[in-house]
Amino acid sequence: MAGAESLAPLDKGVVRRNWDIRAAAWNRWAEVMEKVAGRFNEPLLDAAEVASGHRVLDLASGVGEPALSCARRIGPEGVVTATDMSPDMLDGARRRAAAAELDTMRFEIADMEALPFADESFDEVICRFGIMFCPDPAAALAEARRVLVAGGRTAWMVWGPMEDTTIFAVIQSRVRAALGLAPDPNLAQFRFAAPGLLAGLMTDAGLGDVAERELRLDARPAAGSKFWRANMEMSFAEELADATPAQRAEVERQVEAGFAEYLKDGAYHITAHARIGVGRRPAA
Length: 284
What we know:
Blueprint lengths: L11 H18 L4 H15 L6 E5 L7 H8 L4 E6 L2 H13 L5 E5 L12 E7 L8 H11 E12 L6 H14 L17 H8 L3 E12 L9 H7 L1 H5 L3 H16 L2 E2 L2 E2 L1 E11 L4
Parallel strand pairs: 1-2, 1-4, 2-3, 4-5
Antiparallel strand pairs: 5-9, 6-9, 7-8
Helix pairs in contact: 1-4, 1-8, 6-10
């Protein structure tokens, strides 16, 4: 089985800059995307066995998902610590937590490869679509093991192959074509698309009871709903900011044409494919 050496290398400074650039778009669309996010959040929280009263660490929280869902699940006796390496992203999580009156949330700027927490501080560690952007994912998994209590559980969600998630497949191809950008064969969000890669790294990090589960979802957004706009703006924030009005119009035309291929009976028939890796810190 291929390990970390098979992953395309990443530069941490570039990764941080990219998320800082996207933060405004992610904040702008956070509430709109909340319902969609919930379809991914709940399976992750279930896999981690998050329950009332638990202490949970959420890595790469961004503008608050799945940390806000986690805070609702753990109730007033629990605590969820939301972390991200981008202050601008985490400001969105703070804003949304305050608006929802979720006072059991804590916030910390943190690099998941070197966590600022003591050993055995958390009952669960969760991460939704974050480890793909780690230059050293083995270090991140080792840190998760370190901060878990003995027997504590961790769950990590990653994307499967891009072609299995319609919104990425269409937006990546159509936006790049409209803006004259070359295809990117090494998109970071699909670094863990190969089955078993995540589970193998979790085992190598010393986690026990490791398993990898598939999550496949279907959606039927209504025809003409422009459901894709949030994802498009969050994925191509920098490129769209520099686009001329004519280029932006061509992007919209291309993306609409791409999704038209999935239109049937008044709705777009689209799919998503993610994987969840789960494991525990051994009790002894």
